[in-house]
Amino acid sequence: MNNKNDLTKDRIFTSILFLALPIMGTSFVQMAYNLIDMIWIGKLGSSSTAAVGTAGFYMWFSMGIIFLCRIGAEVLVAQSVGRKDLDATKETVQNVLQMTLFSSLFFMIIVLLFKDQMIAFFDIKEAHVVEMAVSYLGIVALGFVFTFLNPIFTAIFNGYGKSGVPFAINTIGLVFNIIFDPLLIFGLGPFPALGVKGAAIATVTAQMIVTLVFIFYIRRNKDIHMFEGLHIFNKPNKDRVLRILKIGLPAGLQSMLFTIFAMIIARIIADWGAVAIAVQKVGSQIESVSWMTASGFSTATSTFVGQNYGAGKYDRIKYGYRISLIIMTVIGLMTTFGLIYFAEPLFRIFINEEVALKEGVIYLQILGVSQLFMCIEIVTNGAFNGLGKTMYPAVNSTVFNFLRIPLALYLSSTVLSLQGVWWSISISSILKGIVIVSLFIWTLFKVKRELEQPFKEAV
Predict the structure, then answer these.
(1) In a domain, 309, yes or no
(2) Which of 136, 209, 218, 429 could form a cystine bridge with 370, CB 3.0-4.6 A?
(3) Helix (H, G, I), strand (E, B) or coil at 404
(4) Element housing 148 (H / E)
(5) N- to C-terminal Cα distance for the chain?
(6) Which residues contact 8 (CB under 8 A, 6 or more apart)?
């Protein structure tokens, strides 16, 4: 492994920061796909936004399936790199790519067969919204192979310590999406105006380009030894597959359950009509700026902790987590300020309808209260993942995400009405952050007994 990808040496702050910045950039690029879609689709009105938002829940659900492979890939690659074990790294890469291809094809078939029933779950009253949602979901399903592979390639490179590569490649896809979106949504020259179908086609095309560029980069760069001798049709290694699933299963199930709970919340929101659905979709996209930032540091922290856990360096784990937590505290407070005091101009970027704007401002301000706790929860989840202890964050998130449902039902039945749903999300985020940080501090004492060794490095 190239020394510049080795996170078990050198100063901790700079190691995490230089690893985190490209990962954050990649996260923002991935987020920008959705933001750009929402900006352009928002010009078509609340109905189109509600349709894409409804179909988008199944894209969220697919991320849970991806996590089954992604978290295991990221952690096992990082730990084997920390141990300088190239054979284990190559074995992980081959098996995780095989698992990803199989799962993407399986989920694509399921969605194409049952897309009408999937959208019908939300009991949307407006027939034209249902029709647009079904069309959008059917098109994006055709690109699931690319949608699944790109985060896995990203995770492999991040675990290896080369986070700049996926950032650059995903940026190429974003540029294509920026170009295709307005052309296909509104039509220009030879391009017909396709509305939400155009947004779906643009996204699938951009994702396909990203996959092709990843493959081209891997084939041209012979110094990336973890892809040497890769044969997708080789028989999978049962033990390696089980190790990947053991690490990824808690996070994957947690993500899928989160989506299911969010879908139930969305069905509750649907009682207030398409405008309420659009508000929740647009508001979550705006809020995603903070959780994507936190996710970038979470992945960097996971890789940093994973490599140092593999190398047996406890003190670097402890100080690395502390630095990430401090950074996330600052970012969380800044986000809280931004969402509370700049809610209206932020929401107006997407939708100008006065009814939606008024409710959107309230949504952002309520969620702004919990941003600090959400940020520290996400980065702490990454630290747990680096240790390979993915069960703690999965259970913590699942329990409090589930509690949103009865809390939303209760609070929305009071004078709070729809605002009660927003408060159920914010309150649960606060509780998740407090509990997971407490659990990690307790876990560090156990890790210390396992790995402690003399350490005298500057941070």
Answers:
(1) yes
(2) 429
(3) helix
(4) helix 144-160
(5) 23
(6) 82, 307, 308, 310, 311, 313, 316
Between CA 18 and CA 45 the distance in angstroms is 41
**78-92, 198-212, 413-427: which range is least confident on average?**
78-92
Number of domains in the chain: 1
Q: Specify the amino acid at residue 332.
A: G
Q: Is residue 78 within 8 Å of 236, Cβ to Cβ?
A: no
pLDDT, tens digit, 9 for 90 and up, residues 122-155:
877 778 888 888 999 999 999 999 999 998 998 8
Sign of CA dihedral 39, 45, 48, 52: positive
In a domain, 459, yes or no: no
Answer positive or negative: Cα dihedral of 456, 457, 458, 459: negative
Phi, psi of 375 (to 5 degrees): -65, -45
Whether 387 and 447 have beta carbons less than 8 Å apart is answered as: yes
Provide the token pair at 395: 């259970």
CB-CB contact of 420 with 413 (8 Å): yes
What are 166's two structure tokens?
Answer: 């996926």
Sign of CA dihedral 459, 371, 289, 134: positive
Cβ–Cβ under 8 Å, residues 130 and 110: no
Q: What is the pLDDT of residues 41-68, one digit of tens each?
A: 777 777 787 788 788 888 878 888 888 8
3-state secondary structure of 191: strand
- Give me the domain span that covers residue 430: 8-451
Q: Which residues contact 221 (CB under 8 A, 6 or more apart)?
A: none
- pTM score, whole prediction: 0.70
Structural domain includes residue 71: yes
Q: DSSP class of residue 188?
A: B
Q: What three-state secondary structure class fits 367? A: helix
Please identify which residue in the block is written with the tokens 């700079």. 14
Q: State the Cα–Cα distance between residues 391 and 400, nearest whole angstrom.
A: 14
- Give just the sign of the alpha carbon dihedral 200, 206, 208, 210: negative
How many residues are listed for the chain in this entry?
459
Rounded-to-integer distance, Cα 237 and Cα 226, Å: 16
Closest to 272 in 3D by CA, of 366, 401, 368, 359: 359
- As beta bridge partners, residue 191 has 188
In a domain, 27, yes or no: yes
Contact 130, 120 (CB under 8 A): yes
pLDDT score of 456 more than 50: no
